[in-house]
Amino acid sequence: MEDERTMNEAQASAAGSLFHIVSDKAVPEVIETIRANAPKFGFHVRHVFDMRREYEQHGIEVFHDFDLCHIMVCNMRGSFNSMKHNMERAAVIYQPKQITVFSDNGGTKVNYFPLSQRCIAEALPSDVGFQKSLHQACLNIVDMIKASV
């Protein structure tokens, strides 16, 4: 039986659908909660990109309350095992592992773009096992976000 969390592929775009949720927690608290919850979902936070700092380091002037962060998560064992089977997966595997967090209208928005199984199939049509496993990892990230906000 197909996982009930699987996106309705007929209705989703080929790439997938943007997942977004709002939290009453501040940006740093959401990030720390994701960091704490990640191991429960088979991930760890590899890096948090403070985009304010990134832009400013490149001479970009940002507005005073700009606080966009990208959280890069990874299942290191799963990622490495995946690479052992097919290094071509590397171009697809890293993109859906970033979560964005930012303040907006008094709340904190968390956005994530889980790749659909169809999108993964279009990228690597002969790699059927990967199509399912990466899509499942994306769904696990959605669950991790829900548990963290």
Strand fraction equals 15-25%
What is the H/E order? EHEHEHHEEHH
Mean pLDDT: 88
Low-confidence segments, given as residue ranges, are: 1-11
Main sheet characteristics: 5 strands, antiparallel
Ends apart, CA distance between termini? 29 Å
Question: How would you portray this structure in words?
Answer:
With 149 residues, the protein is α+β, with helices and mostly antiparallel strands. It contains six helices and five strands; from the N terminus they run βαβαβααββαα. β4 and β5 form a beta hairpin. The chain is globular and about 50 Å long.
Write a brief caption for the model:
This protein has 149 residues and is an alpha+beta fold.
Key terms for this structure?
alpha+beta, 5-stranded antiparallel β-sheet, 149 residues
